[in-house]
Amino acid sequence: MVAPSPTSMRVRTRKTKAVGIPTIDLSMERSELSEQVVRACEEYGFFKVVNHNVPREVVSRLEEKGTEFFSKSTSEKTQAGPATPFGYGCRNIGLNGDMGDLEYLLLHTNPLSFTETSKTIANDPTKFSCAVSDYIEEAKELACKILELVAEGLWVPDKFSLSKFIKDVDCDSVLRINHYPPVNKNQDQYEQLDQARVGFGEHSDPQILTIMRSNNVGGLQIETPDGLWLPVSPDPNEFFVMVGDALQVLTNGRFVSVRHRALTNAAEARMSMMYFAAPPLNWWISPLPKMATPHNPSLYKPFTWAQYKQAAYSLRLGDTRLDLFKVQQKEDTSIVDILVQPK
Ligand SMILES: C=C1C[C@]23C[C@@]1(O)CC[C@H]2[C@@]12CC[C@H](O)[C@@](C)(C(=O)O1)[C@H]2[C@@H]3C(=O)O
Ligand SMILES: O=C(O)CCC(=O)C(=O)O
Ligand SMILES: [Fe+2]
Predict the structure, then answer these.
(1) pLDDT tens digit string along 12-58?
(2) Which atom of ligand 2 is nearest to the CA of 205?
(3) Would you call 213 a catalytic residue per the annotation?
(4) Residue 267 CB: number of other CB atoms within 10 A?
(5) How many A from CA of 333 to the centre of ligand 3?
(6) Half-sphere exposure of 31 (CA within 13 A, CB side)
(7) Which residues form the Fe2OG dioxygenase domain (predicted)?
(8) First vs last Cα of the chain: how many Å apart?
(9) Contact between 249 and 184 (Cβ < 8 Å)
(10) Which pLDDT score, from 0 to 100, does residue 14 have?
(11) Is the dihedral of CA 48, 316, 77, 188 positive or negative?
(12) Cis peptide before 280, with omega less than 30 degrees from 0?
């Protein structure tokens, strides 16, 4: 059971907007499809995909394993923790004091790593790691397909210029299973005041792309370009795609990583699974050659994924980490710069 969080972790829920999330049918004709994917990445940095061809059985097997784990006793679950960052975590998110009303499992997608972690998680570690492995393979394939469509839609000469970042055997992708216990409305005075508990505070994902799926319980919200929070209706049969910070850089700011959060205002438990697609630690991230030109110079200083991760892990969840890597623009010149200019 997850104890309720302090009052500072609650947010008003009224300022939301009822517009549609882009839904993209992956079975449609390829050139129209790649255009739609690019448009959704530009407009929201977020979309839903249907006709994705991920076998239902692969998803339900991991969901089963997640349910099995989270229904264990606290003392059993804590044997798989604390999450530093991998393993079982409860309420603590990251290492800098962020908290949420959730518990989770965080796994590296390297088979040696998740096979080892599985030993502390499951009674049958082989079955657990097999479910994890099959899910990772499908999520990775879906992420590659989307990145190849993005490259085509952007008219980048090499169709694989983005997907190659997440295909390498040494890639640093991670898998997360979040579990948000239900809130008893009658006992929660804040619910009646039109406020909700924050399950997972607002942030953008640092990686290239996130492939997300949840059970039929809502809670996820995305921030629209005009700054409103848009609730996302859950759809257990489909996947949601989020642009991460690294893809914002690779497209030189043409795509913007989507800020999102999860609220626990439901009567039922929400369980979500996220595959965060990332490159190997020593790979450099900077705009694709086509995205940065003399007329449209790079907005970001080049960095390795390891450098970006280090920055992310040294900051709070809601911080805009990309600011640290922005190239100073002329109009950004501070008053200090002006005063110290030689005459
Ligand atoms: C507070 C933090 C948790 C996080 C690492 C960080 O310092 C900032 C980024 C957070 C985030 C958000 C997306 C993913 O859930 C995550 C695994 C990631 O890569 O970056 C988490 C990190 C985490 O929970 O360890
Ligand atoms: O659980 C969710 O719905 C969202 C969680 C999330 O954004 C994350 O784990 O990065
Ligand atoms: Fe996220």
Answers:
(1) 444 444 468 999 999 999 999 999 999 999 999 999 999 999 999 99
(2) 10
(3) no
(4) 10
(5) 32
(6) 1
(7) 170-279
(8) 66
(9) no
(10) 42
(11) negative
(12) no
> 222 and 46 in contact (C-beta within 8 Å)?
yes
The predicted model gives 124-135 an average pLDDT of: 97
User: Band of the pLDDT at 267, cuts 50, 70, 90?
Assistant: confident
Q: What is the pLDDT of residues 83-92, one digit of tens each?
A: 989 999 999 9
3 state SS of 263: strand
Where do the domains of the chain lie? Answer: 6-289
Q: What is the residue with the minimal CA distance to atom 16 of ligand 1?
A: 205
The share of the chain scoring above pLDDT 70, in percent, equals 87
Q: Which of 61, 176, 259, 270 is catalytic?
A: 270
DSSP 93: E
**Mean pLDDT over the full length of the chain:** 90
> 98, 209, 212: which to mutate for ligand 2, most atoms within 8 A of CB?
212
This prediction's pTM: 0.91
CA–CA gap between residue 233 and residue 178 (Å, rounded): 17
Tokens 């096979």 found at: 115
Distance CA 204, CA 256 (A): 10
Give the pLDDT score at 61: 98
- 265 pLDDT band, cuts 50/70/90, is confident
Topology of the domain covering 6-289: Jelly Rolls (2.60.120)
List all residues whose CB is within 6 A of at least one atom of ligand 1: 85, 93-94, 96, 98, 106, 174, 176, 203, 205-206, 276, 312-313, 315-317
The tens digit of pLDDT for each residue in 34-46 reads: 999 999 999 999 9
- Asked whether this complex has an ipTM greater than 0.90, the answer is yes
Mean pLDDT in residue range 193-204 = 81
* Residue found by looking up tokens 């839903």 in the block: 48
Beta strands of the chain (E only): which ranges?
10-12, 23-25, 46-50, 87-93, 98-108, 174-180, 195-203, 209-214, 220-223, 229-231, 239-243, 260-263, 270-277, 284-285, 303-304
Q: Radius of gyration (Cα) for the chain, nearest Å?
A: 20
Q: Which ligand is nearest to the CA of 220?
A: 2
